[in-house]
Design goal:
10-stranded mixed β-sheet; Rossmann fold; two-stranded antiparallel sheet; 12 strands; 2 domains; alpha/beta; globular
């Protein structure tokens, strides 16, 4: 089965930008595009536009609005296979289910437009924390020109090679489809002295110090992806600082920021990590959040 690139739409400018981004990505990768809108029957006081209150009339109105949104995509990409699903149900659950069947789920970074739908706030957090496939968040101002030559796919790498394998896979596959460079970023800080075991101290001595050790760790994580994608240019970037600060320092040259996400469970439910949270709030480019572990 060929997984589609799936876009969640709600009529907002952010979701329309996400739809356009998803269509371009589907065309580049020769994959079908699936457009999903989740809705529930609305009472008149919740509707931003005057529509009938009965379920059939609301369903027809929503279908027409979604079809209108998709029309621009089909005009720009006439050869693209597009399916549209308007699903009545809980928004977060619908989008998480859509992500499970997708190569990538693409959402706007904010929502709540003329078709009452998902909000990135609580619903977006739920989707990001629960999705088992990559989720890309796109802002309203995103344009095709942001994918111009010279702009990189930036990906964060941390820990051992397997810890970032899925994020690196996504970054290299995306760069290969776009003819872009991958910049792999590893941030490091001076840890507490007592965090070192005799074994780790020996490894640091053999590597020649902290920064050379971090560079060797990054090179080891990137090596299999260089071999798998020999045509993709790679820049390895090691810098002292917090992961969020270092990634944001190079975000100005990025056409896409890719970060891994390990789900953190708390007493109030799942949440995404601080690095993903920071990129979603401060990076101007689209951000891909890739689950791992």
């Amino acid at each position: 089965m060929t997984r589609p690139i799936t876009a969640g739409v709600d009529g907002s400018q952010e979701s329309l930008a996400a739809l356009a981004w998803a269509a371009r990505e589907a065309a580049r990768r020769d994959r079908p595009l699936r457009v999903v809108h989740a809705w529930r029957i609305q009472t008149p006081e919740l509707m931003e536009t005057a529509v009938a209150t009965d379920a059939d009339s609301q369903a027809e109105w929503v279908h027409n609005a979604v079809t209108e949104s998709v029309g621009t995509v089909t005009e720009r990409h006439p050869d693209l296979a597009v399916t549209t699903d308007v699903i009545e149900g809980a928004v977060a659950d619908t989008l998480v289910a859509a992500a499970a069947d997708a190569e990538t789920l693409v959402l706007g970074s904010r929502g709540h437009g003329r078709i009452v739908g998902f909000l990135l706030g609580s619903v977006g957090q739920q989707v990001l924390a629960a999705a088992t496939r990559p989720v890309v968040l796109v802002r309203a101002g995103d344009r095709p020109s942001s994918e111009a030559a010279g702009r990189e796919v930036v990906v964060g790498q941390q820990g051992d090679p397997e810890d970032s394998a899925e994020a690196l896979r996504f970054a290299f596959e995306t760069a290969a489809a776009r003819g872009a460079t991958v910049r792999v970023v590893r941030a490091w800080n001076l840890p507490p002295v007592f965090a070192y075991s005799p074994g780790s101290l020996k490894l640091l001595d053999e590597a020649g110090g902290l920064e050379p050790y971090e560079k060797k760790s990054l090179a080891a994580a990137v090596r299999p992806w260089r071999e798998r994608f020999p045509g993709v240019p790679v820049e390895e970037h090691v810098e002292m600082g917090s992961a969020s600060q270092v990634l944001l320092s190079v975000a100005g040259t990025a056409q896409l920021m890719v970060v891994g996400r390990r789900v953190h469970r708390t007493a109030v439910g799942a949440r995404i990590g601080s690095v993903a949270h920071g990129m979603l709030h401060h990076a101007d480019c689209p951000v891909a959040v890739v689950p791992h572990g």
